[in-house]
Write a structure and sequence with these properties.
The protein has 373 residues and is α+β, with helices and mostly antiparallel strands. 35% of the residues lie in helices and 27% in strands.
Length: 373
């Protein structure tokens, strides 16, 4: 018998966060989150996403053991501002028992019905800056700090339960030695001159902060056309600043400014923290922080995290300026491999950006959806 319990107490929240550690303890490819950070994600006093969204967390038990978890999520900005009556679900993990998956998903559907929503989709987080999708190809490829990982049976469960693919994503790896600077160095010089643009680089994290609001503006405007876009409010911006700026290497942040020093494009890359997070196994202390700091300084793999260009400057070669700056930095750092996180397969514009990087698809993922009857 499967028993479903809603998470209310701190000990249950900790159990919710730690369940995938047990489920994936023998996986070489799963990348653990930092337990304390995951717990903060669901702290309504700390995470401002709850000003415009709500979530309910559930644990599934069988024979008094946890066998699955799920977060039922409603982003009211999405529902009200975009009139998209979507019931989200995320933080989905389960043993290979389709009955457990069915019970978890039916609970989310029930909540969707109560709120007059029309369909269920996931796994997704609260917004575009959260993790997304289940892996459908590339199960033998290591995950990253910004992705979920899962065994193949997740996909089987969704399909058998009548769920359809909603959105598909691809991830890529690019060997740095195959990326030729001449493919964009000449172009970027012409673009700078034609549009009176300049690159801005950093050596200190504190120097990035004055530009972060503009960066979020560019991000929102450049991603607004995507089917997955959900507005990120001012409180959330402040939250993400505090949460992520410390993880950044300032030299891996590249901005492009116009003649009036207005930010019109940016790129953010992070060192790969995947192997460090595996060594940490969810714990920052006493030794986990050392693994993070070592990766921040010495990692030879980097992850392209965010990129954005104002709509009026898209298709004008601005990304050539950004990539030229990254190429110089990666050469100095002896970077060997570049990893590109999940990108929508129907986002043709972003695919064109990477054509000179000789990308190789190493992983695919998707979200699943089903109408709420």
């Amino acid at each position: 018998m499967i028993i479903l319990k809603e998470v209310h107490k701190k000990k249950d929240l900790k159990a919710f966060v730690k369940f995938p550690f047990k489920l994936n303890k023998n996986s070489k490819y799963w990348v653990p989150p930092i337990i304390s950070e995951e717990i903060k994600t669901f702290n309504k006093k700390e995470n401002p996403v709850f000003n415009d969204a709500e979530s309910r967390l559930f644990l599934a038990y069988k024979n008094n053991e946890i066998v699955g978890r799920i977060a039922a999520i409603i982003n009211w900005l999405e529902v009200k501002n975009q009139t998209l009556k979507k019931m989200r679900f995320g933080w989905f993990d389960v043993i290979d028992d389709i009955d457990v998956t069915k019970v978890l998903l039916e609970k989310v559907i029930e909540i969707g019905k109560e709120n007059n929503l029309e369909f269920i989709e996931g796994p997704v987080g609260f917004s575009n800056l959260d993790k997304v999708g289940v892996v459908t190809e590339g199960f033998d490829q290591i995950g990253s700090m910004i992705t979920w990982h899962n065994p193949p049976y997740y996909v089987t469960h969704f399909k058998k339960l009548g769920y359809d693919v909603a959105k598909s994503y691809s991830e890529n790896i690019m060997e740095f030695k195959n990326i030729k600077r001449e493919s964009f160095s000449r172009i970027q010089a012409l673009i700078k001159k034609r549009y009176q643009l300049r690159a801005l680089t950093f050596t200190k994290n504190k120097d990035i902060l004055p530009y972060t609001d503009e960066m979020f503006d560019v991000f929102s405007k450049s991603h607004a056309v995507l089917s997955t876009f959900v507005e990120i409010n001012d409180e959330q911006r402040e939250y993400f600043k505090k949460k992520f700026i410390g993880f950044l290497n300032p030299e891996y942040v590249k901005f492009v400014l116009d003649k009036d020093d207005k930010l019109i494009g940016f790129g953010i890359v992070t060192p790969s923290y995947a192997k460090a997070l595996q060594k940490m196994n969810g714990k920052l202390f006493p030794f986990g922080i050392k693994h993070l700091l070592h990766a921040k300084k010495h990692a030879k793999t980097v992850t392209f995290y965010l990129i954005g260009v104002l709509p009026e400057y898209q298709n004008k070669g601005v990304t050539a300026i950004i990539f030229d700056e990254f190429h110089k930095t990666f050469t100095e750092k002896n970077i060997e491999l570049c990893v590109r996180g999940p990108e929508l397969d129907d986002n043709v514009a972003i695919q064109q950006i990477w054509k000179n990087f000789k990308p190789v698809v190493n992983k695919r993922r998707c979200t699943f959806r089903k109408d709420i009857a």
